[in-house]
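Q: Sequence in, structure out?
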Amino acid sequence: MLTPLSRKDIFSQSPVADGMIAEVQGFYARGFDEAVPEELEVLNRLYDHRQVLQPGNKAPQAEAILTLRARTRSGYARRFPKALQGFLEQLGCRHLYLLDWLAFSWQEFPFETADKAATFSRLAQGRLEPGGFLLEIRQLSRLLPLFFFSGRFDGPVIYLIAAEGLPLSLQLCDDGNLHLAFHEQDRPALEAAASQAGLLLGGDEVCFVYYTQKLT
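A: Exactly. Output:
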């Protein structure tokens, strides 16, 4: 089971989550006109964290893409979460925060199938209100595939934030890859952990070569 947490609790506990979500929301919020009532309503309802709770908390600025070479969707969904667990273990991370970048309820998340939505509801103990969760990395094999092939495009699907170990944010993209944010001095450790786990770590070019839409 996942441990439910409020979004504010996660931002209070994790400087990375605090800085990352504030940066992403702030970026997208610039496209809204607060003078338009409908746009202001969306901002007030969903953009709950446009400023950090703690001054000085900033999103890590180094970036990389993490993925797995696979031939089929089923193979990717089965192997990637297990490899990710090994990757995180190498970095000293045993727990992750799970959250959406906006304050949607989890009932609103566009899971690929009704079965996936029902499975998530069971893991979340029915706590589907806007909020987040703490999970053990051994739960990734059950949890992460639920978010693959969802109906969310052109924006972050979910965020996983390391609760210990290296400061690290993992954003699931609609291409099935993970976009990492970290401190540059930690890049060698990430590269070594990816190699050990059988994962590919690279730049933006990775997304043009490896993406789940190509898989059968």
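The mean pLDDT is 94.
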